[in-house]
Amino acid sequence: MNRRGFIVSIIGLFASTALLTLIGVGKSKTIRPPGVVDEDKFVSSCIRCGKCVEVCPTGGIKLDYLNFYTLGTPVLEGYCAFYIQLVEPSEEKNVHFKRSRENAELCLRCIDACPTSALKRLPLKKIKISIPKNDKEKCTKCYICVAICPFDAISVDNEGWPSFDLDKCIGCKQCAILCPPRSITHEPYEG
Amino acid sequence: MVSVLNMKNVVQWIRHVSQALFFVFFVLFVIGTVCSFTANGFAPIEPLGGLQIIFSNMTTFNTRILLMVLSGIAIFVITTILFGKAWCAWACPVGSVVELVGYAFSKAKLVPYTRRKNRVAPKNSLLNKNIKHAVLGGVLGSAIISRNPAWCSVCPIGTICRGSAAGGLVAVAETVIVGGVVASSLYENRFFCRFLCPVSSLLTIISKLNPFFKPIVKRGSCKECGICDKICPEGIPLYKEKELAECTKCLVCYSKCPQNGVTFKTISRFNASKKMLISAAIVLAFFITVIPISNMYLAPKEVSLTITPANFTIISGGNITFTANLSFGAAAIPNKDIVWWASDGFFDKNDGYVVRYIAPSTHENKTVTIIASFYGDEEYKGATTTIVGTVISLGQEPTTTSIMPQSFVVKPGEYVTLKAVVLPQEVPIELIEWKLEGPGRLSNNVGESVTYFAPQEVEVEVQVRISAFFKGNVRYLPSMGYAVGKVSLEPTTPPPFYELTGECYDLRFSRISFKDGVVEGPINIGNFSFIRIRGAEATVYNMSMFNASLMAAEAMLKGLEIYASSFKGILDGRVVELTGNKKVALSGTIEMNDGEIMFTMLRCKALEAIQLRIVGKYVRGSEPYMPSVVTATEVVLSQKYAMSAPESYEELVKKVMKLTSGQVEADGFSIIMPTEYHLNRALKEYGYKAGLVLNSTKLTGENMTMYAIYYKIIVQTSRYIGPFGSYSIKATGDESIGGVIWHLWTSWGIGRYYCHRVLNVEVHTVLFKLDKASLTDVQLLSSIHK
To answer: Cβ–Cβ of A46/B152 closer than 8 Å?
Structure first.
């Protein structure tokens, strides 16, 4: 490498570093697949290989295309089945699943597929994907969410609204998928 | 044909086949294989991504990631020393696309592919081959600074590989990236690969150690035409034998040389200095040892999970402690998540190494399955163990214990008397143990009834929980009941709040026999199914009906009809569990033991019960006047009485159920009549006269007549989601479910109905007529006679 090349290299290093760092300023939080504890730690470990997208049986994992900082990282746009039996959740299936849980088989293939442990094997209690919110203006109190929640995390409060037990809820978004008026929405889990 | 079969062309065709195979493998079938390759928990990561995540995780170091990256680098270094930059020309999907597009353009005579010069001079220009080293530095530097392997987001190799998985807008973004790479290559052959690609940079650096398959110009036959310089995709000045580390072994110079003047030596003179050779040997030796060690270290280990005791026999209602042993080889693994599950009975907690299992109460021998499972983590594989045990019955009968009243409100310094009721009635109430959780004290700890004294002063409203424990004896199983109370500061706190709304009813019984019974199903409504159980006569023993809290030791139901979403019980010694979506057809005399019926509606013509409790509540909120109307009665009647239920709700209301009894005793008893508003409405709607409002803590009576309007069932929510939005229907108890179904069916045709969802039960009024009674603390709140 000659001197000119070396100087160009140094300039290029700083320029590209500065550029890529500046682009990283506008990062935002999104709902991640299971196995993420810390968003920063996840982003710094994800090599955007797309393996989780490939193995996800529900097709719920998509690649982020909105934020340049995290372009190509997996985002849970659909729902997480969590159990293989619930890959295509439906009211009947989930209700039946809740009554006979002995054959429950965990899915979590995305965690198994991740080569860099960006999605980690966590104790089941620590898996938090998102936090559900119920829009009371849209909710019709049909209680389908109460019936289908595979984790028994939704109950009816004194006023008849569905309420979420955030200790039990992992945020798999199945209630949001099956909610007829689409009143349940999920927000990214923080901390 | 000769020219086609020429060795020069064959070599190129072999290379294109290799490119096509790799392209199909990486892009069309497998995603992310370039980035990482997984086998049995061992997943070496490609070196650029690996270095980036090592750099971006500098502060939080992870041995697993480091070893994966090192093994990936080891594979990379070894293959590069053996084959040089062959990846670029023989496998890289971006290179394949670039070459294919370039070939297509040259065929279309848009870009003269073969005659094109290397327009960018490698010397004395800003655009030189060292830029890619700078990009590599920038990529790694930005990974350190922004703690983000940002290159991976835009890496054309990664994008082209995951392109088919991404779909949607990602595909657009990726088309832009790959399109840019391809377009730039039309300006200058392999522009991106030569000048910018950091992977190429890494390959070039390592390729300096590669001694095999170097292109050599045969000085004898060379006519110095310079074609090899121009057509080389990497722009190597071959004639000068410079920059040979950049060679991608594409053999284009070999194929295109008109003089056959380029050869490839299997092993060429090794240009690197001794120092480089030694360091390379050290690096190689290090990586060769790292791979097997990291593989051994990283693959999740097989663990064994056992439960002690491995099998067990336990008496009904008894308990046993299970210990889970999680071990790898001989070493025990502590502090992991172990989750327990039992087919019947329950645990004191569902996770942990040591749990206490409480067997179910049963009067028949039962087999239970206990499962302990460990999900696994980074170090260890998951494991599951199942043990099977037997719950033996001593022939004891199950009992239920409840406390009356079930809930109460007292002011500070006041007291309330609680009584325990153990069913069935024949149970000798020997010694019931009382226990208090919360402030205050109990008058006695053992006995049939107890008085709770609230503390003299409380700062805030406090909850207390009182439990009564029936120990059981040789014949009866133990059971326990709870009462929940409030010590309230407010003097006018309304009576306790009973929840009567719920998903559906739950009828539990120890035995039910249907005479001329028919079970049929499923009856589909929308996508939900019911089972209909009909019987000319049914006898229920030890029945308890939740939500309406109707409890009876024995009840005879005539003309019974149940629409159930499921029922389970023991039928002829077999466990029967029927849910809505199973086909059912049973008839004749049906007798079920130990069952429960989740039912949507119960209709019966007559009901006989020895012991009856009606606990109800008016759901507060909609009435404009006065304290909320709450009616709650708990009456123990010593004599058998008959209650004939009318056909329809109107008839029921007109009739006003009449309960007669020779003697009534009621403790902790509280009845409040409706407010004026409510009574007026009731008058208007149902046309009955009403009179008395009582609030008493103690009530005794003789020849007492009790009138009660039975509860009303409202199917509150049922919806149809369709083009006209949601549609809700309200059906009252006088409509049969069949009517409701008809109503729904004719409304919008086929759709999604959930008419079974919410059943709202309202107990409107309970009236008393007392011929002879001694009352204490009676409050007459309002009296209306019309």
So the answer is: yes
CA dist B594 and B540 (Å) reads: 11
pTM: 0.55
Q: Which of A148, A128, A171 is nearest to A88 (CA)?
A: A148
Give me the mean pLDDT over the B210-236 stretch: 81
Determine the residue of chain B that is closest to A118 in CA distance: B65
Distance from C-alpha of B521 to C-alpha of B529, rounded to nearest angstrom: 8
For the segment B125-138, what is each residue's pLDDT rounded down to a tens digit? Answer: 566 777 888 888 88
Percent of chain B exceeding pLDDT 70 equals: 56
Structure confidence at residue B558 (pLDDT)? 64
Say whether B560 sits in a helix, a strand or coil: strand
Tell me if chain B has a CB within 8 Å of the CB of A59.
no
Spell out the alpha helix ranges (H) of B397-511: none
Q: With a CB-CB cutoff of 8 Å, which residues 112-151 of chain A face chain B?
A: 113, 115-117, 120-125, 140-144, 146-147
- For chains A and B, count residue pairs whose Cβ atoms are closer than 8 Å: 232
Query: Which of B324-333, B365-374, B446-455, B700-709 is the least confident region?
Result: B700-709
How much is the ipTM here?
0.82
The domain tally of chain A equals 1
A123 neighbourhood in chain B, CB within 8 Å: 336-337, 375, 377
CB contact under 8 A, B150 and A40: no
Q: Name the region of B729 (left: φ>0; alpha: ψ -120 to 50; beta: rest).
A: beta
The reply to whether residue A65 touches residue B341, judged by beta carbons under 8 angstroms, is no
Query: For residue A72, what are the domain limits?
Result: 3-188
- Residue in this structure with the two tokens 């309960």, named with its chain if needed: B659
Q: What is the pLDDT of residues A4-19, one digit of tens each?
A: 666 666 666 666 666 6
